[in-house]
Amino acid sequence: MGIDLVAGGRRVGHKTRTAPVSDNVYLKLLVKLYSFLARRTESKFCKTICKRLYMSKVNKPPISVSKVARYMQPQEGKGKTAVIVGTVTDDIRLTELPALRVCALRFTEGARARIVKAGGECLTFDQLALESPKGTNCVLLRGSMNREALKHFGHRCTVKNLHTHDHVKPYVRSKGRKFEKARGRRRSTGFKV
Predict the structure, then answer these.
(1) Which end of the chain is more exposed for a tag (fewer CB within 10 A), N or C?
(2) Which residues contact residue 155 at a Cβ distance below 8 angstroms, ignoring those fewer than 6 apart?
(3) Over 80: is that where the pLDDT of 148 sits?
């Protein structure tokens, strides 16, 4: 059995979510709203929002107000609404925050206070749907997906690097001579993973 390349090769996307796993009632209402908008307006913006609402918590990383401010500062970000399917957090390292219009699923207490104090606005997704159902004058932003946990995971095997666990961060107190350096960690001692 080979791969039918005429038909398009391997089928990918068979595990994509079609609904959120979460039991959050408000999230389900937003999914109902944006799936309707995506269907009726044929807007890519609404489709993307809908897809991101389905995502797990790990795939909805938080973003700080400093990052939002940095992305919205250039000329193309002026007068637009930053849209984040996730949480907006505060950043004490940023001393002066410009007036921002931000729409997000959640705001931390500090982030909301700072945005409002700077003369900005915090919107919910149902308010955004009333204002711009097709996502006009909106900028979609996402937080960084790089988590500390990823440092412990192995990388994919290649022809040049067959060993998937080489240079992977161990789950130990400290990375020293006395910690997890024997069997299973050296080629000279048993095997190396």
Answers:
(1) N
(2) 161, 164, 168
(3) yes
Contact residues for 140 (Cβ-Cβ < 8 A; gap 6+) = 45, 48, 49, 83, 84
Decide if 170 contacts 179 (C-beta within 8 A): yes
Cα separation, 47 vs 34, whole angstroms:
8
Per the prediction, the chain carries an average pLDDT of: 90
From the list 68, 62, 83, the residue with the least C-alpha distance to 137 is: 83
Rounded to the nearest angstrom, the gap between the alpha carbon of residue 58 and the centroid of all alpha carbons in its chain is 7
Residue-level pLDDT at 78: 83
Whether the model clears a pTM of 0.85, i.e. scores above it, the answer is no
Sorting pLDDT into bands at 50, 70 and 90, what band is 154? Answer: confident
In contact, 98 and 121? CB cutoff 8 Å: no
* Enclosing H/E stretch for 156: none
Alpha helices in 120-186 (DSSP H): 125-131
Residues belonging to the chain: 193
Instruction: Look up residue 107 and give its amino acid.
Output: F
Torsion sign over Cα 34, 36, 42, 47: positive
Residues 113 and 3: their CA atoms lie apart, in Å, by 56
* Per-residue pLDDT, 180: 81
